[in-house]
Amino acid sequence: MDKNIKILIPEALPEWTDRIHNGPMKEVWNGDNDNLPTLELTPPQKGLKSEFIDGAWYWVVGCEKCLGSSKGWDYFVCDEHNICIDCKTNRSEVIGTVWGTKGGFRCDPCQTALSLKLKREALEKVASDDYDEWDYKQNDEIVCPHCASSYEPDEPSDGKETCDICGGEYELEIEYSVTYSTTVVGERITLDLLENE
């Protein structure tokens, strides 16, 4: 996409400053202002966004990959860069689910292949005859007893869990340990103080 695209948006008046991006494919002006009409527009092509320049609203390039400023989680993506990160299939040609990931998305066949690869690698870490249930007790993080993958959950709770890597189910029990801390109140009593009394 040409980085110098600049298309006037005559429908958006210059005095309208209340504009939000409603997803990467819609711009909304005055959505929260009852005194002005609400305007919803779709950019003329993917990867463009609205920007206020020199007293007017314009469609300009928003695709971070086109601009060379991508940090991996891009909001605006043009058709050219809207491709599976593994097989490079354009999103318009993908059938089925897409999986968002850093750098764009992964199509379902590529995600399935990756999941199988990760599962195989994880299961290879734990030999079938090398299982000891004590290896999975009292750990600082959750460790799957099927494949030894470890993680810290967002909000853990006791109960049945399913491993994101191997798909194995296991029972999670959260264990708490009690520790004690003390601090001196007033002056610390020492042997020297006792002998001076």
Automatic annotation (TrEMBL):
Top-level taxonomy: Bacteria, Pseudomonadati, Pseudomonadota, Gammaproteobacteria, Vibrionales
Annotated source species: Vibrio nigripulchritudo SOn1
Superkingdom of source: Bacteria
Name of the protein: Uncharacterized protein
